[in-house]
Design brief:
Blueprint: H1 17-27, H2 34-67
Length: 71
């Protein structure tokens, strides 16, 4: 059985030139290109949102347990 790896669909976006130049100047040595920098930033931002949601859910659960007298 052969497994075929699929590449996720990509989108094309348009950004201001001056912003791209500034980002490349500041972070160009850390990333192979602007796309990989932007992909990293977007992944980090979306990951952090998930962690914040988990923390908020945790606080709600702890409050419910306190209200029930378990904590």
């Amino acid at each position: 059985m052969t497994t075929v790896a699929t590449t996720p669909a990509r989108r094309q976006i348009s950004l201001p030139e001056d912003l791209c130049v500034a980002a490349e100047r500041l972070y160009g040595s850390r990333f192979e290109n602007l796309e990989s920098l932007l992909e990293f930033v977007l992944r980090e931002l979306t990951r952090n949102e998930a962690e914040k949601l988990d923390q908020r859910e945790q606080a709600i659960l702890e409050q419910r347990l306190r209200d029930l007298g378990y904590i």
